Amino acid sequence: MALIVQKYGGTSMGSAERIRNVARRVARWKAQGHQLVVVVSAMSGETNRLIALAKDVSPQPDARELDVMVSTGEQVTIALLAMALKDIGIDARSYTGGQVKVLTDSTHTKARILHIDDANMRRDLDRGTVVIVAGFQGVDENGNITTLGRGGSDTSGVALAAALGADECQIYTDVDGVYTTDPRIVPEARKLERVTFEEMLEMASLGSKVLQIRSVEFAGKYKVKLRVLSSLEEEGQETSGTLITFEEDKNMEQPIISGIAFNRDEAKLTVLGVPDRPGIAYQILGPIAENNIDVDMIIQNVGHDGTTDFSFTVNRGDFARTKKLLEEQIQPHVGARAIEGDSKICKVSAVGVGMRSHPGVASKMFRTLAEEGINIQMISTSEIKISVVVDEKYLELAVRVLHRAFGLDQA
Amino acid sequence: MALIVQKYGGTSMGSAERIRNVARRVARWKAQGHQLVVVVSAMSGETNRLIALAKDVSPQPDARELDVMVSTGEQVTIALLAMALKDIGIDARSYTGGQVKVLTDSTHTKARILHIDDANMRRDLDRGTVVIVAGFQGVDENGNITTLGRGGSDTSGVALAAALGADECQIYTDVDGVYTTDPRIVPEARKLERVTFEEMLEMASLGSKVLQIRSVEFAGKYKVKLRVLSSLEEEGQETSGTLITFEEDKNMEQPIISGIAFNRDEAKLTVLGVPDRPGIAYQILGPIAENNIDVDMIIQNVGHDGTTDFSFTVNRGDFARTKKLLEEQIQPHVGARAIEGDSKICKVSAVGVGMRSHPGVASKMFRTLAEEGINIQMISTSEIKISVVVDEKYLELAVRVLHRAFGLDQA
Q1: What integer pLDDT is reported at residue B247 of this predicted model?
Q2: Residue A124: its chain B contacts at CB < 8 A?
Q3: In whole angstroms, what is the distance from residue B78 CA to residue A188 CA?
Q4: Which residues on chain B are in Cβ contact (under 8 Å) with A54?
Q5: In sequence order, what DSSP letters do the residues of B122-184 get, joined into one string?
Q6: CA dist., res. B161 & res. B219, Å (int)
Q7: Residues 6+ apart with CB under 8 A from A129
Q8: Which residue of chain B comes nearest to A13, CA vs CA?
Q9: What is the pLDDT of residues B26-47, one digit of tens each?
């Protein structure tokens, strides 16, 4: 008998029929003798509907009140799933974040979980009751309702698994696992049986939208065994998804590269001819951060003649605003020669813990791209990832040839 | 400076624009220096939408879970109203039933309020904050969410006013007060400046749908000054509605009759020739009550020849079921001669505390109806009410002539 936390997203809770499907799936796990805590999101579209309603009343809704309102989405689905379970003879009980209670700080709309009280849930689990918890929400020390920010239900699931010492946290989604790359671009992409947390973090931040990155960090921190599964598979056809492990499997031959990630939603900016002196990076990026613009890659090469070029990438939606900021405020301030920008770029990355012990991954990657005539505009590396920025038009080609070059299309 | 509890129904909260209207109204009261607690219902239609969704998932939804779900309707509107108030510079704070907290028993979907903790609300009021409370809901001693049953927001308003010792509880609705009768039937009907609780109870139970009867009982029990007002009146055009007083105004000439109430939603049944012996009423009405059929008027006249006739009225929707029950189970059991029934009747009542001290009201009522050729089928009286059952087709005529006969069309 294991204690399992399952998390179902908005698509899985999207209609009465789907909710009954989830209930049947939960019942099958229960029938195998497991204890179950089920974390659910709001019905798909509901959170957006509520936010739109709030904005209809108030252009900039008060954050505390927005949380009161938006948290109702999950309050509806916990009740519906509990009803559906009782209907098929499974004892179940719903809990709001406040009823659990999931204690958070008071940062409304993006609160952080501080502590989870497991007493009520344990009592129910010991009685054989399925515990259903509203994802995405908590309460602060004064009883104010808080929410964890978009995608926070994954984090709720992992945090509950950590608090309960669950044997596994299963994230049900509309894909059946983590792939070596996007199968829409490379049909030969394979599902990974397992992937390490570090790889998953790099994949997630690079645009593999399977899991919310914060939940992966959380799982790594508390050593929660995380599994991504499909909620769409029929009874008897279920696969075991992808297990996200918090240590490398010592018994297995580690693949050098686990996957090719990419992101076409970026734009690059370069500040040309900035004085090569201490503090220049901060003088450029400080104002960017103050304007709430997220910066991804940052590259500065060795300078010459006392100046250097400084490049970085931002979300494409922030491109125009960032360029204006650079031209009007930063260029005169730091005394740069010129500002250049390009929003028609993309980032392609090879990710794998195996590259730690295998030199030559970078050169293989660069050679593969060169053979296809793809010019590399920027390069950035971490311990387990090599990212390049190339012209947007080469995205599919680059992903495809790298996927093949690193043997990811072979089992 | 007064402490005022205002309650707004689902129509008043029905759209973003209406919610902003309510906010402006609250702001005007606040500007007069009053402390305000505002109780709100869910947006009109929302509770029904949620119940339909629940029934879509589960034919007979679990009552505890239904409360978890349905209570979200008011959780949305408290947040929206708080946002709207903040937008116009009024400090406001929303509270769910659990956050107040409104302690109830554990009878899900029709819980009764046991106690209201006023500490949080007092703290906010002392700071000049407008307190916004979700109507219709509470929590039991184990923290389970409960609801008070349909129309429970009126009860929430009155209960909060009682707990806070408010100077007045204002119920905003889509009519501007209590009328001497339905203006759709008698255009000369006048709005009453004040009406006693007893009269209001008789009016409410007779079909004046202005206030939920439970809230009126509650107000009478705790001596809460209750006022019915229109939420549709424009700024500067507001009237003072109808004040529901818990004692007769000694300084005023009391009108004999305050209003003519009516109900066309009834049906009458008669058990003919039942043995005139003790316990017979219980033998007839016991099975009716066991089948959850509400009985309104009950009439039994003196018998003769050892038998009597026993009549009562029920909701028209229960007529067929009640008749079947009488014929198949009760008639053979009590040894009655026959069962008669008529679903084409209506009840017309004259209500007024003044009739206590003014004999002759009944005879005036009967004479007025006789002059119009309206046959009276049943008569029932209380201390402040005389009700008659007449053929449905005479409803409008009876109401009109009685309204005139008792001088209600004159200020």
Answers
A1: 67
A2: none
A3: 52
A4: 79-80, 83
A5: HHHHHTTPEEEEETTEEE-TTS-EEE--TTHHHHHHHHHHHHHT-SEEEEEESSSS-BSS-TT
A6: 9
A7: A91, A92, A93
A8: B57
A9: 999 999 999 999 999 999 999 9
Local confidence band at A297 (pLDDT 50, 70, 90 cut-offs): confident
What contacts A298, CB < 8 A, 6 or more positions away? A281, A285, A311, A312, A380
Q: pLDDT (tens digit, 9 = 90+) per residue, A254-291?
A: 678 889 999 888 999 999 998 888 888 888 988 888 88
Tokens, residue A341: 């920008």
Instruction: Determine the Cα–Cα distance for residues A90 and A313; give it in Å rounded to an integer.
Output: 51
Cα A269 to Cα B310: distance, rounded to the nearest angstrom: 92
Distance from CA of B44 to the nearest CA of A (A): 14
Task: Catalogue all structural domains in chain A, each as residue range(s) with its CATH number.
Answer: 3-249 (3.40.1160.10)
User: A109, A63 in Cβ contact below 8 A?
Assistant: yes
Tokens of B279: 């316990």
User: Max alpha carbon distance in chain A (Å)?
Assistant: 78
Nearest to A66 among B75, B78, B79 (CB): B79
For residue A101, whether the previous peptide bond is cis, meaning omega lies within 30 degrees of 0, is yes
A237 neighbors A175 (Cβ within 8 angstroms): no
d(CA B115, CA B103): 5
Contact at CB, B68 and A94, closer than 8 angstroms: yes
- CA–CA distance, A368 with A388 (Å, rounded to integer): 12
Per DSSP, A318 falls in state: G
pLDDT, tens only, A212-246: 777 888 888 888 999 998 887 777 777 788 998 87
**What residues have CB less than 8 Å from A174, skipping those under 6 apart?**
A9, A11, A12, A230, A231, A232
Please, what's the b/e burial string for B247-257 (b: 16 or more CB within 10 A of its CB; e: otherwise)? ebeeeeebbbb
List the structure tokens of A237.
């056809």
Q: Are A354 and A257 in contact (CB under 8 A)?
A: yes
b (16+ CB within 10 A) / e for A230-252: bbeeeeeeeeebbbbbeebeeee
Neighbours of A322 (CB within 10 A): 24
CB neighbourhood size of A98 (10 A): 24
Interface test with A, best of B60, B65, B74 (most A CBs within 10 A): B65
Q: In what order do the strands lie in the sheet with B102-104?
A: B113-116, B102-104, B137-139, B145-147
User: What is the pTM assigned to this prediction?
Assistant: 0.80
Q: Choose among B140, A340, A178: nearest CA to B148.
A: B140
d(CA A172, CA A28): 15
d(CA A7, CA A153): 8
Strand partners, A378: A389
